[in-house]
Amino acid sequence: MTKKGKLGCCDTPCINGYKIEALISVDERGQMVLPKEIREKACIQAGDKLAIISWKRKGKPAVSH
Q1: Rounded to whole angstroms, how far apart are CA atoms 57 and 63?
Q2: Which residue in 17, 33, 35, 65 has a CA-CA distance of 20 to 30 Å to 27?
Q3: pLDDT for the residue numbered 19
Q4: Strand, coil or helix: what is 36?
Q5: Which residues have CB under 8 Å from 10's CB, separation 6+?
Q6: pLDDT digits over 10-37, tens only?
């Protein structure tokens, strides 16, 4: 967690007011696995396509890693 991060309700990490639902690892081939709970919550099924979206706040990226 970064200095900006803080604990929210139920000790779930929050960054800039956003709740972290899951941490996902990327393997050596660049593949990721979305946890079942996340897929069900978002109604994601096999064959669906996902978009990766970034945004800027005050001219700077709003998301950091």
Answers
A1: 9
A2: 17
A3: 82
A4: helix
A5: none
A6: 566 666 777 888 889 999 999 999 999 9
Q: What is the pTM of this model?
A: 0.55
| Residue whose token pair is 């899951």 | 22
Which helix (H) or strand (E) segment is 16 a member of?
A: none
- The strand pairing partners of 26, in sequence order, are 32
Token pair in block for residue 32: 């990721």
Residue 40: closest CA among 23, 21, 24, 14: 21
**How many residues in the chain?**
65
Identity of the amino acid at 10? C
Q: How far apart (Å, rounded) are the C-alpha atoms in residues 38 and 23? A: 11
